Amino acid sequence: MMLNKKVMKCHLVVAYIFFLNLPFQVSAQQHRIDSLQRKLNIITDIHTKVNILEELFANYARINVDSSYYTSQQLLTLAHGSNDVNLASIAHRVLGTFHSQVGDRDSAIYYLEMALDEADEAQNHKERGRTLRNLG
What we know:
This protein has helices spanning about 1-40, 45-65, 65-80, 85-100, 105-120, 125-135. By secondary structure, it is mainly alpha-helical. The longest helix is centred in the first third of the chain and has 41 residues, at about 1-40.
């Protein structure tokens, strides 16, 4: 019985430390998002913007579904405006990832298959691998 009380106390201390730390983790993540947003407004190179939007999407996906969707749409608009099939592949992969995260399997498969076709067309093997990983 004594061992169980010690284990229980240990678990409570770990849980307390975790929840005490949570606001700092969210604050650090928000700081990173704010930093990326500032960079996005300054950068003019389209490929750098795509990288920043991908990173923003990944950060938003953890805390704000609406913002992650908006970011994926920004990425898609940027890619379509460039007429670059490689960027379109990235944008469709990110959009497919969003749909997967919210449980819309049919839309996820649709966008990920589109991304896969575009990655093949662009002969971008790295992007093809990333898309296949998201397809599962």
